[in-house]
Amino acid sequence: MNASEHGFNPAFNMASIKQAINEAVERVSTVRMPAPTRLRDLIRQIRAARTAAEERTVVNKECAYIRSTFREEDSVWRCRNIAKLLYIHMLGYPAHFGQLECLKLIASPRFTDKRIGYLGAMLLLDERQDVHLLITNCLKNDLNSSTQFVIGLALCTLGAIASPEMARDLAAEVERLMKSPNAYIRKKAALCAFRIIRRVPELMEMFLPATRSLLTEKNHGVLITGVTLITEMCENSVDTLNHFKKECGHREIVPNLVRILKNLILAGYSPEHDVSGVSDPFLQVKILRLLRILGRNDVDASEAMNDILAQVATNTETSKNVGNTILYETVLSIMDIKSESGLRVLAVNILGRFLLNNDKNIRYVALNTLLKTVYVDTSAVQRHRSTILECLKDPDVSIRRRAMELSFALVNTNNIRNMIKELLLFLERADPEFKAQCSSNIVMSAERFSPNKRWHLETLFKVLIAAGNYVRDDVVACTIQLISETQTQQVYAVSALWRALEKDTFDKQPLTQVATWCIGEYGDVLLYGPYPDDADAPVNLTEDEVIDVYQRLLWSPQNTVVTKQYTLLSLTKLSTRFQRGNDMLPPFYRKIRQIIDTFGSNLNIELQQRGIEFSQLFRKYDHLRPSLLERMPPMETARPQANGIIGMVNGDPDMDDEKSSIIEPGNTTSQSDSSALLDLLGSGDLSSSVSTMPAGNTPTVTTPATNSNDLLDLLGGLDLTTPTSISVPHQQLPTQIFSPTNTTNYLVDGLLNSSSMSNPNDVPSMVVFDKQGLKITFKLERSLDNADLLIINMVAQNSGLSQITDFLFQAAVPKTFQLHMLSPSGSLLLPSGQVTQVLKVTNINKAALRMRLRISYTGTAGPILEQTEVNNFPTVAMQ
Amino acid sequence: MMQFMLLFSRQGKLRLQKWYVAHPDKLKKKITRELITTILARKPKMSSFLEWKDVKVVYKRYASLYFCCAIEQNDNELLTLEIIHRYVELLDKYFGSVCELDIIFNFEKAYFILDELLVGGEIQETSKKNVLKAIAAQDLLQEDEAVEGALREIGLL
Questions:
Q1: Residue A753 has what pLDDT?
Q2: How far is Cα A539 from Cα A537, in angstroms, rounded to an integer?
Q3: What span, in angstroms and rounded, lies between the C-alpha atoms of A406 and A438?
Q4: AP complex mu/sigma subunit domain: from which residue to which, for each copy (chain B) (predicted)?
Q5: Nearest CB to B124; choose among A6, A83, A225
Q6: CA distance A385 to B27
Q7: Which of A40, A84, A110, A158 to mutate to test the interface with B (most CBs of B within 10 A)?
Q8: How far apart are the C-alpha atoms of A702 and A690, rounded to whole Å?
Q9: B-contacting residues of A 347-406, CB under 8 Å?
Q10: pLDDT in tens, A626-636
């Protein structure tokens, strides 16, 4: 810095004098006390430190020294010490102990002290009450200073750290300074007012009169701060907006701003405010933004600014970033106000040009803005579709993301084939972070606009292949559902999926799940046809080839348990799909049995259970197998809402809730739940219960009045749970056969479901136990004021002829629920008498409720203990 | 409104921080650390913009220094690039082809210049000449005080 530039006597060599004097000062003060390290030297020392530990040593030593000088109230070197402390603070070390010293510096009469003191205050002060009170007083003094730069420092500090209390205390001072004749002070005061209103909006009123005159200024600093302040006020309150529209310094505000803007773009070159050939872009942008607020929903105001916006849009030089900055702001204003349609087309075309710009920043801004306007002006944006699709290949990841979102917003019935083709290409190459969102969006777009079922299925398969394991689970459910419902395309689907399954699919679990489900259901058409003309069916596929693929899937450690469950069930189904011919025990049949039997000792409890259940179907209950494994009727499940795409595009992908309800609420939790339940009842862990529960347990099972009692007995014997009467039909989604949560007899429920569906709302009561003259009924009630609370009124009725004494009803639920049992009405049941008890179940997780019951009583035959599990609570009771 | 401005080196060392919103020290440090890591990890062919929490982050590299600003959703990110550029021009004029060392050793001057360009996170002066004039006048005020103080110390005043 050369002082001679600033009107000092050129002959006077300031620098050398300064140095001499500084040295003299150091010498003199050394006599009194040692001079502290200079800032420059400290920085050098710190930079010379080779390790972090070394740096810490230097800093700690200096901090200790600085603290001691603070304690000694050394005012000579305070400024230098604070400067050093600020450097140390920037390195990340604590420096709060300098806060009060900063205030002392501010209170000093020297400008040098104030300058560093205010800098320190801005850097070190947080919103702590006590220090703030002190600084408010300092600020108040300095705001009344006679030196403009002292006022400037105070205003700048207030602008940076104004707390609500400070804003209230100093608003009047700021308002006074806004009317100062000095432009340097006026502009800073205007921005201070802006910050004060930000913190305390109700202070706005008092600034209104002083604000009005700011727009009549010539000084650009005052003008831009004035526009900023008015913008804030207008955004803050509609009343103020109308106030400014009506009258502002004896001129209407819109024509006034239009005039200023016009002068800026028409005035010739002014070196002071020129930026690459554009006159004061900062001011232009601020004015354009204020015009946008003034023109919003106001036809007259919009009318008054149409011309100037068109002028700015066409006359701005666009070779540099600065020109595009203004165009960008102009486009935003045009889109927001009630502008003429021609102007809007012009604006979208500017964005179209932006998309072709070499500068990635401009491309990004264009996509972002198009995304904002696409729902207002779809047809105008559609014209730039190909350019937008090109942006899917951009090297910049944020541009690709925006392009993807915008592409999905542009998909409609007419362009779906083309758009999805491009998006599938994008999906194949996309980064993992995009795959989930992109695949879900393709699925939803296809759902919404697909031209036909065949195309829809093809698209879903392509998604499953391209996105692999990134596909969200809801896609599996809705693909299966679509195949199930579209009977004409099942041959195509099963052959296409077979071809996909032949390849290695460990990185595509969802695909494997869909494929095995389909082959299990429609395996007969896959092998034996008939094939329609358009189906590209596999030639001469044998049963053994299919089984080999299944074996690979089941053996591969890379496949998940869920996939293996799909596969195992599918394989079981295939045993009835394959044709036996004349051979009673064809080779494939033995092979399937063998594979399934091996799972009887699988380490995974889910797979083990399936293995045992299914192998029983090949042995004792072989006669039931064909009818149990019949083809599923077409499903009519609710699919994910297609209109979710809008939400996705706007950035709130709230899909997670939906997907979890369809499949997979987590494997481990369900297991721990059930074991917790077992513990509660003191029957030990699951495995020991299995072994100690003999097959002779079956007599205790209440046989329901359905034709499937054999099967129930069978599973009852295997399971330690004894399924009870299914007098209350429950609406299980058919897909829940696969659900890993079902540790108990859900298999039965699911299979029986097709025959026992009924109206789900009709379930106020259910019989949970009915044996030897004792009938227990649950009457369900939803609490009105707590949606999570289910109230169960238990009624135990003695329909026998002898009395029941010592009746005790106990219940347990998994840990995720809370059960509160009120005391029973009694323990004695006379013939045809009853006992009631109220159970309150809180179900925060909205999970399916299961309940274990233990009933003990003394009848004519002596004491009796019964156990049962209720897991067929109607789903309406859970929601 | 700009929420904060950070200057940091390619090595991730903070060189300047200006906060226009009140955050506790801990949060400031966390934000700084996260942003520095994120930005340094970005490739040069990426855009200068970053959607980060509820703010838009605009950054640009000049030689070994990154200039990084957080702005609000309504703010013009292209204009923020111009503000950064204006600040760099001012530093350049003041120091005479500025380099990272100038800012390290004269960090307080770098703050003073920023405070004459922005107040409360909004631009207060669009003329480079006016900003430099104000800085020069205040530097002069300091020099006068130094001379006066020194003369008084050695008994000449």
A1: 38
A2: 6
A3: 12
A4: 1-140
A5: A225
A6: 42
A7: A110
A8: 19
A9: 360-365, 395-399
A10: 888 888 888 87
- Nearest by Cα to A373 from A318, A423, A410: A410
A320 phi and psi, to 5 degrees? -120, 165
Greatest Cα pair distance in chain B: 62
Contacts of B124 in chain A (CB under 8 A): 187-188, 191, 221, 224-225
Taking CA–CA distances from A359, the nearest residue in chain B reads B47
DSSP A102-161: HHHHHHSS-HHHHHHHHHHHHHH--S-HHHHHHHHHHHHHHHT-SSHHHHHHHHHHHHHH
State how far the Cα of A810 lies from the Cα of A630, in Å rounded to an integer: 40
Strand arrangement of the beta sheet that strand B14-19 belongs to: B14-19, B2-9, B65-71, B55-62, B49-52
B135: chain A residues, CB-CB within 8 Å = none
**Residue A743 pLDDT exceeds 60:** no
A88 closest CA partner among A75, A77, A97: A97
Eight-class DSSP state of A698: G
Q: In this structure, is the dihedral angle defined by the CA atoms of residues A731, A733, A738 and A740, taken in order, positive or negative?
A: negative
Range 731-770 of A in CB contact (< 8 A) with B = none
Query: HSE of A199 in the Cβ direction (CA atoms, 13 Å)?
Result: 24
**3-class DSSP string for A501-564:** HHCCCCCCHHHHHHHHHHHHHHHHHHHHCCCCCCCCCCCCCCHHHHHHHHHHHHHCCCCCHHHH
Res A133: pLDDT: 82
Which single residue is written with the structure tokens 């009725």? Answer: A797
Asked if the Cβ–Cβ distance from B143 to A225 is below 8 Å, we say no
Q: Tell me the pLDDT band of A474, cut-offs 50, 70 and 90.
A: confident
Q: Report whether B15 contacts B107 (CB < 8 A).
A: yes
Query: How much is the pLDDT for A536?
Result: 64
Contact state of B107 with A285 under an 8 Å Cβ cutoff: no
Residues of B in contact with A30 (CB under 8 A): none
Instruction: Tell whether A322 lies on the interface with B, counting CB pairs under 8 A.
Output: yes
A418-423, long-range: CB within 8 Å, 24+ apart, which pairs?
Answer: A419/A385, A419/A389, A419/A445, A420/A445, A420/A446, A420/A459, A422/A389, A422/A392, A423/A392
Rounded Cα distance between B70 and B80, Å, is 9
Is the reported ipTM for this assembly greater than 0.95?
Answer: yes
- Exposed e or buried b per residue across A802-833, where buried means at least 16 C-beta atoms within 10 angstroms of its C-beta: ebbeebebebbbbebbebeeeeeeeeebeeee
Q: How many other CB atoms sit within 10 Å of the CB of residue A531?
A: 15
Contact A399 B47 (CB under 8 A): yes
- Lowest-confidence range among A25-29, A63-67, A534-538, B99-103? A25-29
pTM to 2 decimals? 0.69
* Nearest Cα residue to A515 out of A559, A480, A478, A544: A480
User: Would you say A867 and A853 are in contact if contact means Cβ atoms under 8 Å apart?
Assistant: yes
CA dihedral in degrees (A534, A538, A541, A544; nearest 10)? Answer: -120
> From the candidates B115, B117, B133, which should be mutated to test the interface with A, based on the most A CB atoms within 10 A?
B115
SS3 of A712-776: the string is: HHHHHHHCCCCCCCCCCCCCCCHHHHHCCCCCCCHHHHHHHHHHHCCCCCCCCEEEEEEECCEEE
The type of residue at A350 is: I
Amino acid at A772: Q
Q: Delineate the domains of chain B, giving CATH numbers in brackets.
A: 1-152 (3.30.450.60)
Using the CB atoms, write b or e for A554-578: b if 16+ within 10 Å: beeeebbebbbbbbbbbbbbbbbbb
CB-CB contact of A188 with A226 (8 Å): no
Which of A477, A449, A450, A448 lies closest to A464, judged by CA?
Answer: A477
Nearest beta carbon to residue A360 from set B47, B74, B104: B47
